[in-house]
Backbone:
């Protein structure tokens, strides 16, 4: 289609000339619903999010529910099987405070990853009127996604589950029921980090508990029967080993991608960068925002509870809803 001296190509996976920071927020949403107007923040970094995003995918919702169940199961075993029956006063208080704090941070990071718009490009904005409003230079090429009929920014990829093009899409993770992209990668990194920490902590507590109970009677070190305690601890250890292995590898992979300014999709497709790379600390600052500080580890940073409650009342059904 020729319009105003530029060409619009229905190509899904190539390098467009429209930058990822461009203003492409005009347009309509067909499958999803946005309430209150399209006030998305387009540049990377943990700026305050004004949207509540949720993907209504059956498999993803089940996997997210399983994640919460396993974390809460670990908290139950750690608190009620190992810590509360302990004779020392400082031991359960110290370990309980550390474990439960990390568990809350892990679940909060999971929620922020799941409910944050990963950087979706609005559907149906590839119209002649919108193309004219871009004021592109003669001969400049931009790309249109044929699946969601949207102008495709640089480094955006289409997700078949979210049914949207996602800026700087790294991958779609069913365990958080969302894509990991430009706007929620920070929370995904925190989620993997905190899950790895509580898994390692649970393994250490389990080993200490077994060692303690071997020296005394099992009835004296737990309020549960010996058989039930052993089964609960064995399942917890298996869960902790699997979670620790998976999340530690994923955490390292995410940090490597951020420090090299290369998403997993770009690495697998061996795409040559056409953008200016922000490596190492520049890449970390672009994802986490600002200079290094403890706020980088806070999943609640930038969350406005009162605005979230007000906006969540306006959500509607669809393939996903955004508020």
Residues:
């Amino acid at each position: 289609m020729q319009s105003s001296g530029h060409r619009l190509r229905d190509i899904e996976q190539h390098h467009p000339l429209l930058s990822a920071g461009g203003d492409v927020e005009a347009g309509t949403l067909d499958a999803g619903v946005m309430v209150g107007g399209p006030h998305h923040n387009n540049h990377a970094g943990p700026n305050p999010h004004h949207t509540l995003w949720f993907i209504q995918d059956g498999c993803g919702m089940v996997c997210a529910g399983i994640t919460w169940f396993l974390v809460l199961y670990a908290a139950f075993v750690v608190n009620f099987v190992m810590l509360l029956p302990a004779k020392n006063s400082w031991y359960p208080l110290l370990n309980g405070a550390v474990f439960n704090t990390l568990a809350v941070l892990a679940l909060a990071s999971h929620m922020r990853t799941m409910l944050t718009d990963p950087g979706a490009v609005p559907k149906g904005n590839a119209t002649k009127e919108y193309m004219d409003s871009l004021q592109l230079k003669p001969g400049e090429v931009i790309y249109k996604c044929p699946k969601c009929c949207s102008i495709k920014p640089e480094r955006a990829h289409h997700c078949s589950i979210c049914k949207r093009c996602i800026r700087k899409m790294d991958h779609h993770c069913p365990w958080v029921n969302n894509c990991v992209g430009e706007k929620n990668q920070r929370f995904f990194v925190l989620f993997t980090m905190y899950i790895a920490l509580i898994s390692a902590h649970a393994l250490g507590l389990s080993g200490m508990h077994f060692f303690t109970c071997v020296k005394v009677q099992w009835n004296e070190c737990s309020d549960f029967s010996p058989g039930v305690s052993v089964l609960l601890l064995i399942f917890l250890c298996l869960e902790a080993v699997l979670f620790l292995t998976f999340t530690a590898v994923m955490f390292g992979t995410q940090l490597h991608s951020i420090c090299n300014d290369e998403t997993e999709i770009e690495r697998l497709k061996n795409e040559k960068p056409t953008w200016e790379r922000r490596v190492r600390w520049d890449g970390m600052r672009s994802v986490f925002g600002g200079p290094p500080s403890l706020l980088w580890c806070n999943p609640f940073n930038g969350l406005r509870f009162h605005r979230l409650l007000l906006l969540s009342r306006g959500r509607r059904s669809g393939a996903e809803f955004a508020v």
User: Anything to note?
Assistant: The CA atoms of residues 68 and 94 lie 24 Å apart. The radius of gyration is 23 Å. The chain is about 45% helix and 10% strand.
